[in-house]
Amino acid sequence: MNPTPSRERICLLTGGGYPYRRDALGGWCRTLVDGLHRYRFELLTVTDRELPSAPAYPLPPNVGSARAVALGREPARAERRRAQLPEGAADAVAHLCHGLLDETATDVFAEGLRGIAELAVNRPSPLTRLPLADKLLDAWRWGVQPVPDELPKLSVRDARSAAMLLRHALRALAVPVPEVDLVHCVGGTTPLLAALSGRWRSGTPLLLTEARTPVTRRRPSEERLSPAVRLVLRRFRSAVARTGYAEAELIAPLSTYHHGWALDHGAAPSRLIQVPAGVDPKEYPGAAELEDPPTVVWAGSGGPDSGLTLVLDAFTEISAALPGTVLHLVGVTAAHEEYCADRIEGTGLSGTIRMHPLPADPRERFTVGQVVAHVPGPSDPPSRLVEAMMSGRPVVAVDVGPTGETLGSTGVVVPADDPSELAIAIVGLLRATPRRRALGEAARRRALSHFTADRVVRVYSALYTDLAAPPLAPAFELALAVPAPRTPMPATLRWLTRED
């Protein structure tokens, strides 16, 4: 019997994922919403992609609404000229640009971002005339702090390109957030911008789940940008993250890696509570592996930034060492099928590579292979790795983000961006059947001990109770000769205590 629904309403704010996309983070959000059925969820996703037509996941009864907002395109130049520049906009932009380029000036960046958020309330048109290019050039002349070894030159053209990209990102500040008791923002710069704007407007408590895997490698979509523009974008994302850590009542990193990254970016230790990723063991019961032929499975979207290139490069060497080996690419999205097919054709091994859409039944996701190659995208959470472990398959994973701490000693970790090392490790497991099966069994035991969905649901239920529950009624103390005994503060409330 379900418990009585609570009065608390939660806005689950994501960046184009749940409930509209079946990706690793979408599965994590679904587990949370389905498990916390005593709370009422208002789902909001902010995306710069095409608006989805319908949710990809069935919505449970405790979902009150599901809304997707697409960030609009840059208006025409004539429309930008007609838009009036509000009073104080120039100062806000100057603070934002100075704080963006100086990593020691987080407060200055936050002041500028908050000023722009106030301008963008329910009307993004004032953002079209923000003097971002001019203020970026002014801030650049004062120098980027800390100064890189070789500071790239910011030309007028670069400043205009960066201004266009920043202006597009800042449109998330105009997205209205529902009136709720708690905003739960799940990773990413775009949803965090919307969450910060909503917090500054209404004062609603903010819970931030840090699910990204920050890596240094360049995003394929930014390959054509100049070094100066890429530096501006990196500093902008970092500054938004620092502002989010300063504003959130609580930050819940998915791993020790994410925990350390948050600390390095200014998060207060008293606001951090680590909640590892978890999956439902019933959805990944495991199955006996197929005997022939030798098979490798990789799960990902199949896009340019999904790790596909490294997997295909490694598979070329695997096929040379073990002819007849089959590679299954599981979870390729419709938007990336053509790109993935072109990359497969380029290997000359299309006869041994199978491309699959994400199966509706997760039990089929990893059991098609004897070895799992875990090569995530730069922002993928460790959920897919946990799914592979729960399926009882041995994993060879590249050393990115929390991979090593998640696998422990139950898998093989190889250096990132080295297809030869990945191929050697996979071939070694395909040839060593007893070791391969022993690692698969050990991985499932580790997942059952540390990464189950019920743990995630229990912890987040406590966090929601602390942050979203209405305040207690005022208490009155009697003046007694002997002081009344005091009960210790609950542990969940101690997480929220700010440092002096």
Description:
With 500 residues, the protein is α/β, with parallel strands linked by helices. It contains 17 helices and twelve strands. It has a six-stranded parallel beta sheet with strand order 3-2-1-4-5-6. Strand 1 (9-14), helix 1 (24-35) and strand 2 (40-47) form a beta-alpha-beta unit. Helix 3 packs antiparallel against helix 4 (106-119), helix 3 (89-101) packs across helix 5 and helix 10 runs parallel beside helix 11. It is globular and about 70 Å long.
Biggest beta-sheet profile: 6 strands, parallel
Counted beta strands: 12
Low-confidence stretches: 476-500
Q: Which strand order does the major sheet show?
A: 3-2-1-4-5-6
Strand share of the residues?
5-15%
How far apart lie the N and C ends?
A: 44 Å
Number of helices: 17
| Rg (CA only) | 24 Å
Helix content: 40-55%
Counting helices, strands and paired strands, the structural category is alpha/beta
Order of helices and strands: EHEEHHHHHEHEHEHEHEHEEHEHEHHHH
Task: State the shape.
Answer: globular
Q: What's the average pLDDT?
A: 84
Which key phrases capture this entry?
500 residues; alpha/beta; six-stranded parallel β-sheet
Which helices and strands, and how do they pair?
Elements (H helix, E strand, L loop, with lengths): L8 E6 L9 H12 L4 E8 L15 E8 L6 H6 L6 H13 L4 H14 L12 H11 L13 H15 L11 E5 L2 H14 L3 E5 L16 H21 L2 E4 L2 H9 L30 E5 L8 H14 L4 E5 L6 H11 L5 E4 L14 E4 L8 H8 L4 E4 L4 H5 L4 E3 L4 H13 L1 H18 L2 H16 L22 H4 L6
Parallel strand pairs: 1-2, 1-4, 2-3, 4-5, 5-6, 7-8, 7-10, 8-9, 10-11, 11-12
Helix pairs in contact: 3-4, 3-5, 4-8, 5-6, 6-8, 7-8, 10-11, 10-14, 12-15
